Amino acid sequence: MRSLLARFVRDEAATTAIEYAIIGCGISIVVLAAVNGIGTNLSGKFAAVSTSLK
Fold first, then answer.
1. Cα three-residue angle 27-9-6, rounded to 5 degrees
2. 29 alpha carbon, distance to own chain's centre
3. pLDDT at 35
4. What's the angle, vertex CA 34, arms to CA 30 and CA 39, rounded to 5?
5. How far apart are CA 32 and CA 25, in angstroms?
6. Which tens digits make up the pLDDT trace of 5-49?
7. Half-sphere exposure of 41 (CA within 13 A, CB side)
8. pTM given for the model
């Protein structure tokens, strides 16, 4: 059991996968914030166009 635990602690493959997951989460947060900002801006423009057409 000790050798299994020692081998698990020395294995760095899982560390790399966790780092990639954290990077992916960071990128997805940035993309969501950008899309949200663009959506809000676009909604305001559509409202202005709708008001001007009435």
1. 165
2. 3
3. 94
4. 150
5. 10
6. 788 777 777 678 889 999 999 999 999 999 998 988 898 899 999
7. 6
8. 0.58
